[in-house]
Design goal:
The protein has seven helices and nine strands. The chain is α/β, with parallel strands linked by helices.
Amino acid sequence: MDSSFIIVAYYTLDTSYQGIAHQYLMPTILKLGLQSDVRGVFSLGNWQRNTSYKPTFIKTMLEAHPDKNIVCVDVDAEIVKYPNLFNSVPENYNIAAHILDKNTWYKNEYGQDRYELLTGTLFLRNNRKTMELVKEWIKRCEESTTWEQKILQDLVKSKKIKLYELPLEYTYISTLPNGTVPHVKVDSPVIVHHQASRKLKNLIR
């Protein structure tokens, strides 16, 4: 099926993430006939550095596929059904992500930290403005040990970037951190994330 987007992802070579990519993401990409570019990369030393590589990888994908918008997903993602929404994100939005309401998701009160931009599923329109945003994201990741997701959230806020909010169906997390089922139920998810990093991030060296 022809589409305006390509699914991209990366995994760390010689780690469990390599097997996870072939367990979850790759079979569903093949089943749905999605265009994709999934690559193995060498570890940068630990989980934090490897995740901070995400904007650099996205920049590479924007350059490698100039005629396609980019949908970057984590390799523990399972694409359950064809993600039609990525073909119809309004033209005046260059980036799309889900904003998690932590009060609802965790059944807790988070105050000013209530909303969290999730980068497990991230749509980026392939144009000059997006590339400028990604380059700034790279720069800030190189200067900080803060999680890349939080850096992008702060960047979007400080630059007053117009964000298209993906529905939860496109970034559905299969369990809560303690392994129990989510408080928020989604009957028909499009992309499910299995949160492999909960078990693996301290094992990557």
